[in-house]
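Please fill in the sequence for the structure shown.

STRUCTURE ENCODING:
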């Protein structure tokens, strides 16, 4: 319920009712009430206004948490939003609440006032006793969703108590005695004063949640308020006149209090302690108590008065806070990351363990934004924080920070909100990773990628230009050699004819290699160029392109059902065509048989192309995808040594993998993967 989660509304009401007891004058009473509310830290602003029925006005005349100059007359007719809240409470005689005064304020004036005095929610409580309105109590808290049902009920009841106390303070018996007219009138008013004070004390004592009681010098109870009787589960007549043991206290407990009573009598000084005791309905509770001496006219102790407050929730909150701190320290010890704690609105950093990355903070600090966050990133950081607070969601962001040595670093920060039982944020626990070893790498990688892109563009231009520049002299060499053979063929001997054939063959193979290199350099695409491709149609087109070779070798091409994928259709046709051509080329003496299949894996399709060819030595399977790498001499098997390199380039462009499994003489199976664009996963 409170800013730190350590005080309850019950504690606050006890503080306020205690503040009423020793006061006699109305101004003092109002002042003490306001101070009690604000000192509790549950409320950041408190003021009480006196109601003037003849003017129908509420005039604030006591406050805490705001400057004195704000205590100006607040007229019912004024347009001030705080005056409107007060007016509504006066009109309805009921507690009135306004929320979201910063995020969704009624007006800019109220928003500025709320920000200046650190509150988010405001309530006006009418002070009514016996249908008479004595004033209005206004409270403000930084809890965005404060003043829940139970809190409103408690404050409404407290409003009656305060009104009764104000009624007693305003009575003629408590005015300045110098204004009284004569001794006779004064004598008449004395019993009235005593009766009013008795009623005042009885009202306060019966309404407080604290236990109020008194002992005689024989340790017998001579008074117990309703709260104490409720704890015992006994009536007043059943309890008064009994000793501690007779009212159910365990022997050790009774003996402890008897010793304390003796000490108070001896020293005439109050004594304070803490003890656990059984409540008849609520079970074991923890109490804070005070025994104080009541002196007679001769200065001797005649009665011991006591007050006891239930502090179980506060103790549990303190214990929870201690455990939270212990968990935080354990997290700090176990983690290599920066660990920190923030206030609910991130206005203060409570603690930070920097792990020698950024400067430690062991005490709360409000200038953490300027101290740690680079100015260029402060707006992004605050915007992300505001959204996380609004939605009560995890804060996540990459941003620049100032490191221990003063240099700039990068961090990935994540913080989660800790909520109380009402769903309000009580603090944030965060961790931040040093990603400076990573951002530098990303920048270097970006530079490298940019250089590679430039290099690739240059290589493509070079390959294209080189292919054309090389093609012409190769064609000329081949043409002139053939012309030489035709014109002087009859004059050449067998060796010369063979030499010409070798030269022509070499020129033709060189032209084929240049064409293949050009083809390899042109295999590139972007993912946004991909389209839906039916692999059944792709295989059919690749088979049709190889129809002449299939017929010449009497090859058999079979397949299972093939899927639809996202890719570049032209390149996928080339991929299948190259693998089929490879299987036909290296089939050996038997007619080639090739089978193509596909199965869905984890987020991808696994394709296989299996043949009955001559096979490959397993030690050489890693090298066959290299450009111009050949495992056989040109006179054994044709080819340029670039077909499988093109296959790998195509698969890589499609975010897949390609590999081969084979044994000499037992055929070869090529495997490659393509992502499953349907996202349906394994079947």
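FILLED IN BY: designer on duty
SEQUENCE:
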């Amino acid at each position: 319920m409170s800013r730190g989660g350590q005080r309850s509304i019950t504690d606050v009401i006890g503080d306020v009712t205690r503040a009423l007891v020793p006061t006699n004058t109305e101004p003092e009473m109002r002042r003490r009430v306001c101070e009690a509310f604000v000192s509790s830290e549950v409320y950041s602003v408190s003021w009480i206004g006196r109601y003037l029925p003849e003017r129908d006005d509420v005039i604030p005349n006591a406050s805490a948490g705001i400057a004195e100059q704000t205590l100006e007359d607040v007229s019912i007719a004024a347009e001030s939003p705080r005056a409107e809240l007060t007016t509504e409470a006066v009109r309805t005689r009921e507690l009135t609440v306004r929320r979201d005064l910063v995020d969704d304020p009624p007006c800019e004036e109220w928003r500025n006032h709320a920000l200046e005095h650190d509150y988010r929610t405001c309530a006006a409580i009418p002070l009514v006793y016996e249908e008479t309105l004595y004033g209005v109590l206004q409270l403000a808290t930084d809890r965005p969703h404060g003043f829940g049902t139970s809190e409103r009920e408690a404050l409404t009841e407290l409003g009656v108590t305060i009104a009764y106390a104000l009624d007693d303070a305003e009575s003629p018996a408590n005015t300045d005695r110098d204004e009284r007219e004569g001794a006779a009138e004064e004598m008449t008013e004395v019993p009235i004063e005593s009766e009013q004070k008795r009623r005042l004390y009885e009202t306060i004592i019966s309404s407080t949640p604290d236990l109020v009681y008194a002992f005689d010098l024989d340790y017998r109870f001579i008074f117990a308020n309703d709260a104490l009787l409720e704890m015992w589960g006994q009536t007043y007549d059943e309890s008064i006149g009994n000793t501690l043991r007779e009212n159910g206290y365990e022997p050790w407990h009774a003996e402890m209090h008897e010793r304390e009573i003796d000490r108070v009598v001896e020293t005439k000084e109050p004594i304070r302690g803490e003890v656990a005791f059984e409540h008849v309905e609520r079970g074991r509770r923890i109490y804070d108590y005070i025994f104080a001496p009541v002196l007679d006219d001769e200065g001797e102790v005649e009665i011991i008065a006591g007050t006891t407050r239930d502090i179980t929730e506060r103790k549990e909150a303190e214990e929870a806070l201690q455990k939270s701190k212990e968990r935080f320290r354990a997290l700090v010890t176990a983690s290599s990351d920066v660990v920190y704690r923030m206030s609910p609105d991130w206005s203060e950093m409570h603690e930070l363990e920097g792990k020698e990355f950024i400067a430690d903070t062991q005490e709360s600090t409000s200038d953490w934004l300027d101290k740690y966050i680079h100015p260029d990133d402060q707006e992004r950081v605050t915007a992300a924080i505001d959204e996380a607070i609004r939605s009560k969601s995890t804060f996540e962001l990459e941003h620049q920070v100032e490191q221990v040595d003063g240099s700039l670093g990068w961090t990935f920060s994540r913080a989660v909100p800790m909520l109380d039982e009402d769903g309000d944020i009580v603090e944030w626990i965060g961790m931040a990773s040093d990603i400076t070893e990573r951002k530098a790498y990303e920048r270097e990688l970006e530079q490298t990628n940019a250089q590679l892109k430039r290099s690739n563009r240059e290589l493509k231009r070079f390959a294209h230009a080189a292919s054309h520049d090389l093609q012409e002299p190769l064609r000329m060499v081949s043409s002139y050699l053939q012309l030489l053979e035709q014109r002087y063929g009859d004059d050449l001997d067998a060796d010369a004819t063979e030499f010409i054939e070798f030269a022509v063959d070499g020129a033709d193979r060189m032209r084929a290699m240049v064409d293949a290199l050009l083809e390899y350099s042109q295999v590139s695409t972007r993912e946004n160029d991909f389209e839906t491709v039916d692999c059944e149609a792709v295989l059919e087109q690749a088979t049709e392109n190889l129809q002449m070779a299939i017929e010449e070798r009497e090859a058999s091409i079979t397949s299972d059902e093939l899927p639809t994928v996202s890719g570049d259709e032209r390149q996928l046709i080339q991929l299948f065509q190259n693998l089929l051509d490879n299987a036909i080329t290296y089939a050996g003496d038997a007619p080639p048989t090739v089978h193509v299949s596909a199965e869905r894996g984890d987020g991808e399709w696994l394709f296989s192309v299996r043949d009955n060819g001559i096979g490959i030595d397993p030690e050489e399977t890693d090298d066959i995808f290299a450009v111009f790498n050949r495992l056989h001499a040109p006179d054994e098997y044709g080819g340029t040594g670039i077909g499988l390199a093109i296959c790998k380039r195509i698969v890589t462009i499609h975010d897949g993998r390609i590999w081969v499994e084979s044994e000499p003489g037992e055929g070869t199976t090529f495997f490659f993967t393509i992502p499953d664009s349907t996202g349906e996963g394994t079947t």
